[in-house]
Amino acid sequence: MGLVGGGEGGCFVGGVRSLIRRKQVDSAHSNPSSAAATSHNQLAKALTVPHLVAIGVGSTIGAGVYILVGTVAREHSGPALTFSFLIAGIAAALSAFCYAELASRCPSAGSAYHYSYICVGEGVAWLIGWALILEYTIGGSAVARGISPNLATLFGGPDSLPAFVARHTIPGLDVVVDPCAAILVFVVTGLLCVGIKESTMVQGFVTTANVCAMIFIIVAGGYLGFKTGWPGYELPVGYFPYGVDGMLVGASTVFFAFIGFDSVASTAEEVKNPQRDLPMGIGFALSICCSLYMLVSAVIVGLVPYYAMDPDTPISSAFASHGIKWAAYIITVGACTALCSTLMGSLLPQPRILMAMARDGLLPSFFSDVNKHTQVPVKSTVTTGLLAGTLAFFMDVEQLSGMVSVGTLLAFTMVAISVLILRYVPPDEVPLPSSFQAAIDSMGYQSRIHVWRKQQSDLAFSLTKGGKLLAGQSCSRVLECLCLHLLLQFVACQRFTCPFVPLLPIACILINSYLLINIGGATWMRVSLWLALGVCVYAFYGRTHSSLQNAVYVPATHVDEIYQSSASLA
User: Fold this and answer.
1) Which of 97, 318, 454, 530 has the fewest CB atoms within 10 Å distance of its CB?
2) Packing angle, helices 402-424 and 81-105, rounded to 10
3) Rounded to whole angstroms, how far apart are CA atoms 350 and 139?
4) Which residues cross the membrane (predicted)?
């Protein structure tokens, strides 16, 4: 009995240790692809700041903004809709700062999954990666299903599309199939397989068309507003008909219009100068999106009183009310291009996350293969496209779209936690392959050093001290320091660091937690089932196939000596 109990206890301890084992922060001895690089080709280093901005803006500005304007203004914000977008943009910027630091410091494919693996542990990283797979698959399918109705509107009506791409209902099954959605997913998948630079250039052109449509709304709508005296702002109820609370509720609703900039972080291995370009790409993309959202909302709520807005087609109806019905065609083109660009942004990150998880041994090595000609993870891309295309063809995934928000918010929260850990309790143990055991033994180092209590106390002290330092500062002083911080870092081309730590990551965690709490129970039930499936996959495959399964942990300060000792022994 003692032997059995000891064996069970050992298995339990081993299982717990597997959940908290962490990867090495990228260093001179370990590049982003580590051991996988020796047997597979590298991703192409082809992206610069303009490419990253195209990916970020294209992935973020979807067709939702063409509808959100009317819904949020009517039900929550009123003429204060612009302030709702501003507040939501500031909240998104908190997550963007955290992403920028980690993307600059740990430039590897995998995004939030990779950061969680380095800072928190394998168990949490697996759940984040599993949630991101769900997010991008359902997100891509939902976007693809939304393109065909807009194309039909553009060409004259619901029945204007050719029969082979129009929606059909399967008799007896009550299933509406969408061939157009599946075809578009497969086309985008093929484009992504050609190469990262080529697909990004196409996404840039599509995004430019969308931005031009939004600029038309701003310019033409501004002209009409000045001509008519901005009737939407001349209301007896003032700018806040629903009060400040309504404006904040509106901000929490439009926050999801800023989701997408995290796609930039997934391309970290394909950026020529990731330490400088990734933070700039994320920052510029989010700034452009926030500016466009605010200007469009300011114009539209000024053209039409908020209570008279059409909740389905607010922008087209606003122009039609002033006699410019032909503007609907430009707006529909903008919506179509926005959806196409968002579809590309949804299908781009998932293959790289699958590749990163396969490199770490948590998924089969099939997903880690990189094509030697296109330097793209073609197998993962094709798998992603087939799954998303099948869902888009057969399923109306609108009911599942809330699950996308859960995956995104979980990732945002974990990225903010990772910044705190990396700043205050950085991993001081480095995993090395078991082949280094001889060198480690020859130098007399212990393979495990537990410093959790000291690290936790240091973290608590730092959080308390940082909160006290920032509590007394005024908003203008904080903004001044933030601008100076960003200016100095971009001018000096240094590795980006998130400002106002720990206050900023803590605020990010609180905002994301609030949004997660307000997501419906039915959505949480679906997400829980998906995560439970992920736990089973990890327990029966990922845990035992992990590249860290037989790793030896050594103090980070002695890594160079161990490498030198290993070389001398060889």
Assistant:
1) 454
2) 50
3) 11
4) 49-69, 81-100, 112-133, 176-196, 208-226, 238-261, 282-306, 326-348, 400-422, 496-517, 523-541
Domain ranges of the chain: 43-425+483-568
In the block, tokens 């880690």 appear at 368
Which residues on neighbouring strands pair with residue 27, listed in sequence order?
30
In the 8-state DSSP scheme, what is residue 537? H
What span, in angstroms and rounded, lies between the C-alpha atoms of 457 and 452? 9
pTM of the model: 0.85
Given the DSSP bridges, would you call strands 175-177 and 429-432 parallel, antiparallel or unpaired?
A: unpaired
Strands 429-432 and 552-555: antiparallel
Calculate helix-pair angle for 196-228, 49-60, nearest 10 degrees. 60
Contact between 32 and 109 under an 8 Å Cβ cutoff? The reply is yes
CB 277 within 8 A of CB 52: yes
Look at residue 174 in the predicted model and tell me its pLDDT.
78
Cα(468)–Cα(499) distance, integer angstroms: 15
**CA triple 78-80-83, angle to 5 deg:** 145
pLDDT interval class at 552 (50, 70, 90)? confident
The CA distance from 338 to 57, in Å, is: 10
Spatial CA neighbour of 99 closest among 263, 289, 253: 263
Residues near 464 by beta carbon (within 8 Å), at least 6 away in sequence: none
CA-closest candidate to residue 538, choices 124, 8, 135: 124
Tokens of residue 551, six digits: 């790793």
Beta strands in 411-508 (DSSP E): 429-432
